[in-house]
Amino acid sequence: MLKANKLKKTNTTNNKKPRFNRIKSKAFVLPSLITVISLFFGFVATINAFNSEYEIAATFILFSVIADACDGRVARRLNVTSDFGKELDSLSDLIAFGMAPAIILYTWGFYSMANEFGIVVAFIYLACGAMRLARFNVGASSANIPKNYFQGLPIPGGAGIIAILCFIYPEPIINEQYASGLIVLSILVSALMVSSIPYPSAKNFNFKEVNKGVIFITLALVIAFLYYNPKVTLALGFLGYGLSGIILSSYNLILKVFKKQVNTI
């Protein structure tokens, strides 16, 4: 009797495994689908940039940033991460956060005031974005970068900075000072992407460890600010993240020098 119950239990377990595998194989599609949606948003942003619909183009890049933030988290949550998904995500990022913002930079920011030089600046952004992705793919991270930090500004962050500026001021730039400022900002963003400056990563952030009240208040404040003034809120978010790596590195450098001086006293 005991042997029969054990055999029955084994058969039940074996029957559950194929069912679980079928569910997992279907779940594998979901993160890739989100990645393809992010790619589509980047494609639509490019078309709108060519059609001089710069505000729409910037909006779709911001949509792509949201989708890109979801696909990896969904894959890890469902435990369906794969090399295929990583490669697809990287190629999608190059289009949505490399090519699309570069085209926006040229058509919106440089075409009227810095045509030839604008091509160079826009390409520098694209090339640095591609190198940033390549470095991330091969895992060539510096040993000095703390855990849960990115090495260099992530390409979605760089694309978000370009997109939010276009979103705030969608008219083609015809002012020489504005064009010069955009050139400096574009080169700075490009340099930050290929730098070794650490940037905070929420990839492995465990929300369960955070007080639910804090999460609720934070979400409520973000929603309120987005409702009150979405453009300024998004600008503060992307520009603040872009500056966070510089501020953090400067703080650590000053702290290191201070400790060194204290030890020599």
- Percentage of β-strand residues: under 5%
The tally of strands reads 2
N- and C-termini, Cα separation: 80 Å
Radius of gyration: 23 Å
**Helix and strand composition category:** mainly alpha
Number of domains: 1
Question: Uncertain spans, ≥5 residues at pLDDT below 50?
Answer: none
CATH architecture assignment name: Up-down Bundle
Instruction: Report the biggest beta sheet as strand number plus sense, adding barrel if it closes.
Output: 2 strands, antiparallel
Mean pLDDT: 84
- Determine and state the CATH class: Mainly Alpha
What overall form do the CA principal axes indicate? globular
Compact description:
This protein is mostly helical and about 260 residues long.
What descriptive keywords fit this protein?
single chain, 265 residues, 9 helices, mainly alpha, Four Helix Bundle (Hemerythrin (Met), subunit A), two-stranded antiparallel sheet
What do these coordinates show?
It is globular and about 55 Å long. The N and C termini lie far apart (80 Å). With 265 residues, the chain is mainly alpha-helical. It is built from nine helices and two strands; from the N terminus they run αααααβααβαα. The protein has one domain: CDP-alcohol phosphotransferase transmembrane (TM) domain (Four Helix Bundle (Hemerythrin (Met), subunit A), Up-down Bundle).
